[in-house]
Design brief:
This protein is α/β, with parallel strands linked by helices and about 250 residues long. It is about 35% helix and about 25% strand. It has helices spanning about 30-45, 55-65, 80-85, 140-150, 155, 165-175, 185-190, 220-230, 235-240, and strands at about 20-25, 50-55, 70-75, 90-100, 105-110, 130, 160-165, 180-185, 195-200, 210-215.
């Protein structure tokens, strides 16, 4: 974990040096890319420090609804952002679709070649299948959507192991605790211990879009707006592209 990355909600807005500290709640799948974004941004903005709260988008949405001190929200699902917009918890005119992604099935490196399509997940060789908790982890919701459309969810639901976020799914697969798991393509590309078995047909699930928004209750609106704009800049886009993200 990079220095300056926080795993829980921040409770401070300035640090001991008097710098403005912005807390960004972001989908767990953005961990690697935003770590590099943080380094790049802070190197040219001495008075601003970025702190990240990485978790499932549904969990982050609930934290914001409960009044957690968050400045910017970056979700892996439009649904989570839309609910906050409807409740007027996102600043007017300060939310936009930022990135897109795709869903893949991954396997441990030792299991290469055994699984090549959704139907193969029914095989006896797949004892456990990891997905994010569908109600709070967008990747899990997309997985259930694809499996339901293929008529496989009822048969596979009993062998699923549900994870708190997509990075935990990745960990389960990497350690061999499950035979396969549903993650985003970007998570799979970041792993040296898991391989992509196949890409899930994008027509079988809702498009995966990552919206960004400034939280209305931020105490540092000017700085939050500046970071919002930076995350949509060409420089930031180049970083996201490097980690396999695409754009809506």
């Amino acid at each position: 974990m990079a220095a300056g990355i926080a795993t829980g909600c921040g409770r401070y807005t300035t640090n001991s040096e008097g710098n403005v500290v912005l807390t960004i709640s972001a989908a767990a799948s953005l961990t690697d890319a935003l770590t590099e974004v943080q380094q790049r941004y802070e190197s040219s903005h001495d008075s601003i420090k970025l702190r990240f709260n990485f978790a499932a988008s549904g969990t982050l949405q609930q934290q914001i609804e409960q009044g957690a001190p968050i400045d910017i929200f970056l979700s892996a699902s439009e649904t989570n952002m839309d609910k906050l917009v409807e409740k007027q918890l996102i600043a007017t005119g300060k939310h936009a679709n930022l990135l897109s992604n795709s869903l893949v099935v991954i396997v441990p490196k030792s299991n290469e070649g055994a699984i090549t399509r959704l139907e193969d997940l029914r095989s006896p060789g797949v004892v456990k299948l990891a997905i994010g908790i569908p109600e709070i982890v967008p990747a899990g919701g997309y997985a259930v959507e694809a499996l339901t459309g293929a008529g496989l969810w009822d048969a596979l639901s009993t062998k699923t192991v549900q994870a708190k976020d997509v990075r935990q799914v990745l960990q389960y697969v990497e350690t061999g605790n499950v035979e396969a798991g549903f993650v985003y393509k970007t998570d799979a590309l970041a792993s040296n211990r898991a391989d992509i078995a196949f890409a899930v047909d994008p027509a079988s699930y809702k498009p995966i879009v990552y919206p960004i928004g400034v939280v209305r209750a931020t105490k540092h609106r000017k700085e939050a707006d500046e970071v919002f704009d930076y995350l949509r800049s060409d420089e930031a886009m180049d970083i996201f592209r490097k980690y396999g993200f695409e754009f809506p």
